[in-house]
Amino acid sequence: FxxxxxxxxxxxxxxAYTISDEAFFPEGLFDxxxxxxxxxxxxxxxxxxxxxxxxxxxxxDEVVPALIIGNLGNADLGPEISTExxxxxxxxxxxGRMSIDFTKYDQTTRDALIGVQEAxxxxxxxATLRNLGETTNKGxxxxxxxxxxxxxxxxxxxxxxxxxxxxxITDLGPLQNAGGNLQLGFPIGVEYxxxxxxxxxxxxxEDTELAVLGxxxxxxxxxxxxxxxxxxxxxxxxxxxxxxxxxxxxxxGWATARRETWPHCFGIQNEFNAxxxxxxxxxxxxxxxxxxxxWGAWTQDADFIKLRSASLSYRLPDDLIPGTRSVSLSLQxxxxxxxxxxxxxxxxxxxxxxxxxxxxxEYYNMAPPRILILNMQVNF
Length: 380
Description:
Helix content is 7%, strand content 51%. It contains three helices and 18 strands. It has helices spanning 251-258, 266-275, 282-288, and strands at 12-18, 30-44, 54-60, 64-71, 80-93, 98-117, 127-150, 154-171, 190-196, 208-215, 220-230, 234-244, 247-250, 299-301, 304-315, 326-340, 361-362, 371-379. An eleven-stranded antiparallel β-sheet has the order 1-2-5-6-7-8-11-12-15-16-18, with no helix packed on it. Strands 14-13-17 form a three-stranded mixed β-sheet. A hairpin with a 3-residue loop joins strand 11 (220-230) and strand 12 (234-244).
């Protein structure tokens, strides 16, 4: 914390009621039903060195060393304080073949840790953490587990989860905004960039306005998994996940288009060099023509569906290898498949962490790798 910060208190209260244990609870649908609620305050501390001024070593053209400001610091920096009301229930049905876990939450955060983009005259492009204003988070989480088949030949389990989140910056304290990516009345972390108002007007000059083009964090996350075990020996396990309601900026496309090295822009750049904007739309110009390229032109929806994991394992017969209790073989793959309209490297690739609600963009960084794991486990 900053040197000007004192103490903080975090009261909490929680309760649960297994209503299905009561004599008046009707028999039939539910095996068990528990209601729960909680209220409390919690704090989130800034990073260990966020309050202090930090210098970093760098170099230009690989030969000229220099010191730059990596973090301006904030002597008054303290934790953000969240007050949350949470309610939900847990239910079991059909002799344990189905269970539901549901939670609804309403959270208000004061003195929120928000990264403020400083003026260039401060000598850094990094956001500085401040305790500013107020944010809200509302949403719910639901988990459904089912066992459609239980037999000696097949044990089949299905699990489904869904979560939604709606956040809003309701107060920014003394600031009207804390940087283009933090806008009053909008979710925490938005893509606030120029947008062309006349994108298809051939030959016309671009008419641009600043607007919110997307949200940094997914607004909904959906997961579907299934696990099937045949004859207590062969197991297939698959997990799909979808994230929707967020955006990314293709930073590598933006940078290489400005350098005239992005292949998809060669045709537009050649046309502009030969005939100007006469045969081009404003959208083509701000996407590909150096000197006129807008960051917002490279911002796209980053919704996706991914095959997060798939595995196949087999337990060998116990008496197959003398001296062993059990032997199993497994093959697992991660990030094997995805579908998305995002045209960049990967909809989850990001050049920096998103803790501060900063812009989400990819820029000379790696996508999540595809991984294959072959495993043999022997117990003696």
